[in-house]
Automatic annotation (TrEMBL):
Key word Nucleotide-binding present: no
UniProt GO cellular component terms: plasma membrane
Keyword Transmembrane helix: yes
Naturally occurring in which organism (per UniProt): Bradysia odoriphaga
Protein location: Cell membrane
UniProt family annotation: Belongs to the insect chemoreceptor superfamily. Heteromeric odorant receptor channel (TC 1.A.69) family.
Regions crossing the membrane: 39-59, 65-86, 126-144, 164-191, 278-298, 310-329
GO function term, MF aspect, one: odorant binding
Membrane topology, as annotated: Multi-pass membrane protein
Principal subcellular localization: membrane
Protein name per Swiss-Prot or TrEMBL: Odorant receptor
Signal peptide coordinates: none
Length: 404
């Protein structure tokens, strides 16, 4: 029996799910009733979004109003994400567990996939580190300046009343902590997308190794090479027997690989259906936020350095938020496109004519392009990211002409 090399769920992802259970975002039971903790998180993030929305109509500073519009849009996305996390807990957790079960008999492919996961986890840790530094910035800066980072609607006058100031500051810090926790869920989605990339790469390795016997060190060799290595000159009957055995093995493994392909495609369809609305809302709101932040930075009338710093952070966050999902979706589609050539690299040349015809049909099927489209509007790929940046710049020019 061939040795199977299993890919483990990264410790960072496991800790994220544990944190969700510890803080009460995810419940350990199977009940559908929303807990008090979950309701408090939802009220807090929704209240902050509502306070920012009211501030748009009550604050006279134009630059701050534009910033609050961006905050409201981000708040809408975070509120929907929080709703999604709470209401779809069981489905998300079970789906992530299902797609995380992956193994391969090819040691080299296992190493490549494992290294790709390690690089992904390193990127996730970097993002978490940046979010933590921003948390330190949000916590420490207002007490030093005795002024909130930006103005928003609040029941009490936090500009003149010290108690109101500390309450407003605690409200902002608490909302930011909840927002970071929600961002962990976004990274779990990144992880699921990376898993699909790896799944298709493992399948591509199976296609390449069809018709090849595997040695103990993980390398492969064909039936002909084994015969040559043994120094034997097989008879005609022996050749026919080995040819039939090789074809039977090839077809059997090909059928198993096709079944696995159908399973992965079904899981990807479920992923697309489950998270499509989330991606659509994320892309639309982030695009508007990028345009608004660039507009304020280009035509600002204030001298508040810290507000400018937050505009820059907002642009980086929104660009990164869009780029991550579009890049990973693009990688998924590229992995699917490589399957046809991987099957061509298999040991099909020694198979019978009937087997070759089936292989050609399968190759043509694999050549059919697969697209990941959200809301029947945006194909998830790098071209969409470039188009978003271009459209944001065009909108910036239009707003600039009105400003002048």
């Amino acid at each position: 029996m061939e040795k199977e090399y299993k890919l483990k769920v990264p410790d960072t992802i496991q800790r994220m799910t544990e944190i969700y259970h510890i803080v009460g975002l995810w419940k350990t039971g199977n009940g559908n009733v929303v807990s008090l903790q979950q309701a408090s998180y939802f009220i807090c993030i929704f209240g902050f979004t509502l306070a920012s929305f009211v501030g748009i109509w009550t604050i006279d500073d134009t630059d701050n109003v534009v910033f609050l519009v961006s905050v409201v849009l981000i708040g809408i996305v975070q509120t929907y994400r929080l709703y999604f996390i709470i209401c779809e807990q069981k489905g998300i957790f079970d789906f992530m567990h299902t797609i995380s079960i992956n193994s391969t008999a090819d040691y080299q492919t296992f190493c490549n996939a494992n290294n790709k996961l390690k690089k992904f986890v390193a990127s996730v840790k970097s993002v978490l580190g940046i979010l933590f530094l921003l948390w330190v910035f949000v916590v420490s800066l207002p007490p030093i300046r005795k002024q909130l980072i930006f103005d928003f609607a609040f029941p009490w006058d936090y500009k003149t009343n010290e108690w109101a100031f500390w309450m407003g500051h605690a409200f902002v810090v608490g909302t930011y902590v909840i927002s970071i926790t929600i961002c962990m869920f976004v990274m779990m989605i990144w992880y699921m997308m990376m898993i699909f990339v790896i799944k298709y790469e493992l399948l591509a390795s199976e296609f390449r190794n069809l018709g090849a016997a595997r040695e103990g060190n993980g390398s492969v060799k064909t039936v002909e090479n084994m015969t040559k290595a043994q120094g034997e000159k097989p008879s005609r009957s022996t050749k026919l027997t080995k040819s039939e055995a090789g074809e039977t093995s090839y077809v059997k493994n090909l059928v198993e690989a096709i079944k696995r392909l159908a399973t992965i495609n079904g899981q990807l369809d479920e992923f697309e259906e489950r998270f499509s609305s989330l991606f659509l809302l994320q892309i639309i709101t982030s695009s508007i936020c990028i345009c608004g932040a660039i507009f304020v930075l280009a035509f600002r009338v204030h001298d508040n350095f810290f507000q400018d710093a937050f505009y820059i952070i907002e642009i980086i966050y929104c660009l990164g938020d869009i780029f991550a999902v579009l890049y990973l979706a693009n990688e998924m589609m590229l992995s699917v496109d490589r399957l046809s050539y991987s099957l061509f690299e298999s040991n099909w040349i020694v198979q019978t004519q009937s087997c070759k015809r089936n292989i050609i049909i399968m190759m043509e099927y694999l050549k059919q392009p697969r697209s990941f489209v959200v809301g029947k509007l945006f194909p998830m790929n790098i071209e969409t990211f470039i188009a978003i940046v271009k459209r944001s710049y065009s909108m910036f020019n239009i707003l600039g002409s009105f400003k002048q």
